[in-house]
Every structure is written in structure tokens, then in C-alpha cells.
Amino acid sequence: MQIYGFPISPFVRKVMVACAEKGLAAEVIPVNPGQPPEDFLAASPYRKIPALADSDFTLADSTAIVTYLEALHPAPALLPADPRARAMAVWFEEVADTILTTEGGPMLFNRFVAPKFLGIEGDEAKAVEAEEKLATRLGYLDQQAATGEWLGDSFTIGDIAVASVFRSLAYAGWELDAAAYPSLAAWYGRVCARPGWQAAAAQEAAVMGG
Fold first, then answer.
1. What SS3 state is found at 199?
2. Would you tell me how many other CB atoms lie within 10 Å of the CB of residue 64?
3. Torsion angle of the four alpha carbons 72, 75, 76, 77, in this order, in degrees rounded to the nearest 10
4. How many CB atoms lie within 10 A of CB 92?
5. Which residue segment(s) compose the domain that 22 sits in?
6. pLDDT per position in the chain (210 positions), as tens?
């Protein structure tokens, strides 16, 4: 099984952690969507990362890939069977993908991607604006993290998705304010301590060269 994309993307990391949690071996193949190899285009015609190749089956988009992995290897479950628990797992994944990533993304781009990969100076004003917007979204998550060990009744794709955004933003020098969001910080520590997360983190470090 191959995963195409750079782990600095929270979407790529989400799939990497899902594979690790399920004990699935997956090779990460770094790819630049701007200069895509043919095997990547075969898996992702719209140049979305991550893309997956599982033998002769290919697929793009992290949510679609995790849905496939869950159906193929249902244990341990990252999408709970209980209707309400499953809905909440999908909800937190959506919060991560469309709210946290969208609002925090300019911080990652301007402080890390632009100078490191594009060789251009980032716009710090846009990075600061993104950081301020992101801060307004964390209170709700801190409240949810205070209700139990995970964001829902069990560890799900929602936990992986939210934590993956936080890890990506660390490349931009961002850190979760533990004093302001103590429950969320404690939750993030528990996610990072999981063997599956640590296995994916080691794989990420190898791909990123450090």
C-alpha cells in the first residue's frame, strides 16, 4: 500500500495515522502536485493529496481513503458503529478539515511552506491573522476535550484529524496554549502518546529528513 503526499499536510498525516492505528503497512511517497509523476496522477486525477494505491485500486482524498480503510479493516474502529458516536467522529473530522485547516493554513504556508519550499518570503501579516482566527475556534474543542479521554466516547478519526492539524501547524512554530486550553492540551498529549501516532510520527520524520 502506498500513500502519496508530504506529511506536513494534515490530510496526509491523517491517513498515515489511520494506517498505523490499524496496523497496516503503508509506504509514504513524497509528491509535488505541481510536478506530479504519472503514478500519482493515476491515483489522483485532480492532484489532491493524499492519494492511495492499494494493489490495483487507487483513490484520492483523505476522508474517502479512511472510509475505504475502515471498510477493509474494521478493527480497531475509527468510525464507531453507534450512529451518534459515528456522526460526532465525522463532525470532528469536518471541523479539522474545513475549519481548523482553512483558518490555520495561511500560518503554515507563510511561515513554513513559502520560505522553505518555494524560496519566497511569507506574508507575516496573513500568518498573524490566521493565528488569531484559529484561536477563536479552540474554546469549543477545549470544552469537548474536558468531557472525557477523547473528543467522543472513544478514539476516532475525529481525534486523528484535529491532532493532525495541530501537528502541521507546529512546523510554523505554533504551539497549543496549555494555560488557555488545558483540557485540549491534555487531550493532545494523549493522542501523541498513542503507539499508532508515534509510529506515524517516526515515518513522518524519516520522510521529512529529521
1. helix
2. 14
3. 70
4. 22
5. 2-77+199-208
6. 999 999 999 999 999 999 999 999 999 999 876 788 899 999 999 999 999 999 999 999 999 999 999 999 999 999 999 999 999 999 999 999 999 999 999 999 999 999 998 899 999 999 999 999 999 999 999 999 999 999 999 999 999 999 999 999 999 999 999 999 999 999 999 999 999 999 999 999 998 885
Q: What single-letter amino acid sits at 195?
A: P
- pTM score, two decimals? 0.96
**Are residues 135 and 37 located together in one domain of the fold?**
no
What is the CATH classification number for the domain harbouring 104?
1.20.1050.10
What's the N-to-C CA distance of the chain in angstroms? 23
My answer on whether 87 and 190 are in the same domain is yes
In terms of C-beta density within 10 A (0-12 exposed, 13-18 middle, 19 or more buried), how is residue 54 classed?
Answer: middle
Residues 24, 27, 33, 37, CA torsion sign: negative
Q: 513524497: which residue's cell?
A: 30
| Claim to verify: residue 91 and residue 190 sit in the same structural domain | yes
Peptide bond into 36 cis (omega under 30): no
Judge if 35 and 105 occupy the same domain.
no
Total structural domains in the chain? 2
Judge if 103 and 177 occupy the same domain.
Answer: yes
Task: Indicate whether 57 and 16 sit together in one domain.
Answer: yes
